[in-house]
């Protein structure tokens, strides 16, 4: 289950009950990525510039993102590396609160062990696209592990330009937000101010 919505996410920080940019809540020095290129490393996906993350020997990437506090993860905005939409991620598995995962753990995980699996298309990498998650599964997230299994065109390496996590602090969600259909487009549009400007 995933939906694409649009909104201005540049200036939203983690405050109140509206989904906000969680970048400031990431423990950057402990972010890890397996199979990353030595020239294009994972820190690039949190920078608002032309840098990008690229895999090394094959298309797979395994990214572990710890947070400085427990958060509720609502959605993710994926951006491609410049001119590389064919190398953007396609099959993505998300896991929460897992430590020391390897590629075998991620690729061999049972459906019950996967918090959510996404199949992304080129439209999911649009300048204002946001992929909404199954919010009820992403409560009290202390770390997020992202397993990128393949890319759009099946090329040898995968590239990712930017990764923006949207959510809120652990104690700022109204119980009404936990309804089964949390992917409501109008809710997120309201939270993001209803604006449609693209990201830089």
Notes on the structure:
The protein has helices at 103-107, 185-191, and strands at 4-6, 20-21, 32-34, 53-54, 61-79, 91-96, 116-119, 129-132, 141-148, 159-160, 162-169. The chain is mainly beta. Strands 1, 2, 3, 5, 6, 7, 8, 9 and 11 form a nine-stranded antiparallel beta sheet that branches. Strands 4-10 form a two-stranded antiparallel ribbon. The radius of gyration is 16 Å and the shape is globular.
Compact summary:
With about 200 residues, this protein is mainly β. The chain contains two helices and eleven strands.
Question: What are the SSEs and their pairings?
Answer:
Elements: E1 4-6, E2 20-21, E3 32-34, E4 53-54, E5 61-79, E6 91-96, H1 103-107, E7 116-119, E8 129-132, E9 141-148, E10 159-160, E11 162-169, H2 185-191
Antiparallel strand pairs: 1-8, 2-11, 3-5, 4-10, 5-8, 5-9, 5-11, 6-7, 6-9
């Amino acid at each position: 289950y995933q939906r694409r919505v649009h909104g201005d996410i540049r200036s939203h920080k983690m405050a109140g009950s509206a989904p906000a940019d969680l970048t400031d809540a990431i423990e950057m020095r402990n972010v890890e990525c397996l199979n990353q290129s030595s020239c294009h490393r994972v820190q690039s996906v949190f920078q608002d510039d032309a840098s990008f993350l690229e895999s090394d020997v094959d298309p797979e990437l395994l990214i572990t993102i710890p947070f400085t506090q427990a958060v509720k993860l609502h959605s993710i905005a994926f951006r491609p590396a410049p001119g590389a939409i064919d190398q953007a991620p396609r099959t993505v598995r998300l896991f929460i609160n897992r430590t020391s995962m390897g590629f075998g753990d991620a690729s061999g995980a049972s459906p019950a062990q996967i918090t959510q699996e996404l199949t992304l298309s080129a439209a999911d990498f649009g300048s204002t696209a946001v992929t909404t998650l199954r919010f009820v599964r992403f409560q009290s997230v202390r770390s997020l592990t992202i397993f990128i299994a393949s890319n759009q065109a099946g090329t040898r390496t995968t590239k990712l330009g930017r990764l923006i996590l949207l959510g809120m602090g652990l104690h700022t969600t109204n119980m009404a937000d936990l309804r089964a259909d949390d992917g409501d487009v109008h809710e997120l549009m309201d939270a993001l101010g209803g604006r449609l400007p693209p990201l830089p």
